[in-house]
Structure formats: C-alpha cells, structure tokens
Design goal:
Elements lengths: L22 H9 L9 H5 L9 H7 L9 H6 L12 H5 L9 E6 L5 E4 H5 L5 E8 L4 E11 H8 L7 E6 L19 E5 H5 L4 E6 L2 E2 L9 E3 L12 E7 L6 H5 L23 E4 L7 E2 L7 H4 L13
Parallel strand pairs: 1-10, 4-11
Antiparallel strand pairs: 1-2, 3-4, 4-7, 5-6, 5-10, 7-8, 7-9, 11-12
The protein binds ligand MTE.
C-alpha cells in the first residue's frame, strides 16, 4: 500500500488554480460569449454517469494502488441530508442551491475573527489535488480526487488563541434551497468538530473541488471538510461558520445518537458500530463488501501519534 505523505507530493502535481477548468468561472465565460464552451465539464467527463477517468487523474490514481471512483460515482451517490436521506437525493434535489457568493464567519478564540469571503480565503492558499479514500460509517467507500487546501493555512491566518482546543464547523441553513431542512430530519445546522491538532494535521483539507472542478452542490459546494482517516460524517459540507472553542463541540451525529456515533470517528476495523461490523467495506460501485477496512483508513503512519495513549474503543 503506497500512502502519500504531503511532503512527498512533488511540486509538479501542485497545479496552479488557473490551469484548471473551473466550472463556475467557465459557465460565466461561456455566458459572456467566450469561445471554448465545448470544453465544459460535460464534454470533459462525458455524461455524469461516465466511468472514464480523465488522463491527468489516472496519473494521480497510480500513486495509490486502488482505482479512482468515477466522477459519476462521486457525484450521484452522496450523503447530504439537507437535500434528503436517499443516496441520490442530493444529486437530484440540490439544483436550486446557490453556492456563490459565499461568506464564512470565523469566530471564537482567535485574534482575527470576521466575515471572510470565499475568494479572500482562497487567495494566498495553495490549491492542490489530494487523492483520498472516503470511508462512510455505513461501510461503503470511494477513492476521490479532492481539490482543496490545508485547513492549517486558514487556521494560521486567523491566529487562534491559547484557549482554542477544538474547532467547530457549521453548515449553512437555507430551507428554501435545501428541501431536507424543511423537516426535522437532523437538528439543523449540521455541526462537526476536530481537536486542534487534528485540524492542523497536513492531511486535513478544506475541499473546494473534485476532479479539478468546483464542488458540485451535492458534494458540499463551495467549501467542505475532508479528513481522510475519519468516517465520512466528519466531512461537514457547505461550511458557513467556523469557531475556535475550549470544549469539545457536540457534533450532529453524536447529538443524534451518542450510543452509535462519537466525536473522534476514526476509521477502525476493530471497533464495531453497535449494529454492524466495521471490519469490511463495500468499495463503490461494488454491491458487496469487497475490501478489508484499514486502520485509520490507511493513514496510520501519518496520524497514529495524534492518539498515542488513547483508548480507541472508548473514544469512538
Ligand atoms: N454534511 C452535511 N451538512 N450534511 C450531511 O448530511 N453527510 C456526511 C458528510 N457531510 C453530511 C455532511 C456523511 S454521513 C458523509 S459519508 C459525507 O458527507 C459524504 O460526502 P460525499 O457525499 O461528498 O461523498
């Protein structure tokens, strides 16, 4: 198993943002009459269901010894309860969602709280491809070429104080655009959190895209968290609020059912969910569990020191 550590990512793979076909910018350019609309995402990727992997991502895929999931898999089989609870609901029901303009409120224990426009947050950060596994607590998984930047760069910029022990994230609340929020399926807004050392870890990113294009609404446009060694529910989508706090935040799924979901949510084949084993997983598009789940989702070497001395059965 080849696991890429961030310092090992050759700079040749860190592609300047301008080189990417940016979906929203592209659509704007096309509307303004610019040439080249034929190269838009649908032309690049075929129909959304296409199983074809574009060549530059095929190169990245060769760094992991596992095939990438297709753009179709990544964007049509989702969890995003704000748009409904079925896996195809986010893809079908998120068309009215407006991910721009976008502002993130940053507050709590930091020296530079404020309202930050997304463009402002993106200026000065290095956007790069990161191929990570996403392992859902429901035992399905995918390998996804995310596009984003290290959360640590945002944290450093806003200067957390010595009292900041955790970071807390909130998803936007817009029932008029998010049909799932019109019912109390979950306690809105969706909330997630990380311990500060987890948040500062170089593998933790805020993603703005997938397959080099802006995130589609169903994947958490325009900004979502990706923590590759944790179960997918930590990957809070469409983030509008970030707070630095002293106490462990109560995350949505723990609040929903503390017997079944914890705060840490580290992928661990040895700790079962109360209703099912976590030892094996179903790598989409397979219909069957066809993979042995790896400790920390395969990122043990990079992250185990964060949990030295912790009882991982207790701290689920
Ligand atoms: N974020 C919000 N706001 N609402 C959600 O329902 N679902 C989580 C996470 N982030 C969820 C969310 C779960 S359970 C998973 S597995 C991942 O998003 C799925 O991410 P993906 O659909 O991009 O694969």
């Amino acid at each position: 198993m080849i696991i890429r550590r961030p310092p090992d990512i050759p700079s040749s793979e860190i592609t300047p943002e301008s080189v990417y076909v940016n979906r929203r910018k592209f659509i704007k350019a096309a509307a303004a009459g610019a040439a080249g609309f034929a190269l838009g995402p649908s032309a690049l990727y075929g129909a959304e269901q296409s199983q074809e992997i574009p060549p530059r991502f095929a190169r990245l895929q060769s760094e992991l010894d596992e095939p990438l999931n297709s753009y179709g898999d990544v964007t049509t089989y989702n969890n995003f309860y704000e748009f409904g609870t079925a896996k195809d609901d986010p893809h079908r029901n998120s068309g009215d969602f407006q991910p721009e303009p976008w502002t993130v409120s940053i507050g709590g224990e930091c020296n530079k709280p404020g309202e930050y426009h997304l463009e402002d947050l993106l200026s000065g950060v290095t956007l790069e491809d990161r191929v990570y596994r996403l392992r859902c607590v429901e035992a399905w998984s995918m390998v996804i070429p995310w596009y984003g930047f290290q959360l640590s760069s945002l944290i450093n910029r806003v200067e957390p104080t010595g009292n900041a022990r955790y970071i807390r994230f909130e998803t936007v609340v817009r029932p008029e655009e998010m049909p799932g929020q019109r019912a109390p399926i979950l306690n809105w807004p969706y909330v997630e959190g990380l311990r500060m050392d987890e948040a500062m870890h170089p593998l933790t990113i805020l993603a703005t895209g997938v397959y080099g294009m802006d995130l589609p609404n169903q994947n958490g446009a325009p900004l979502r968290l990706v923590v590759p060694w944790k179960y997918g529910f930590k990957g809070v989508k469409s983030i509008v609020r970030i707070d630095f706090v002293q106490d462990m935040p109560l995350n949505t799924w723990k609040r929903q059912n503390a017997n079944e979901y914890g705060f840490y949510a580290n992928v661990n084949p040895n700790v079962s969910h109360p209703r099912w084993s976590q030892a094996r997983e179903r790598r989409l598009p397979s219909l069957f569990k066809n993979f042995d789940t790896m400790m920390f989702n395969g990122y043990t070497e990079q992250v185990q020191s964060l949990y030295a001395g912790m009882d991982l059965e207790r701290w689920k």
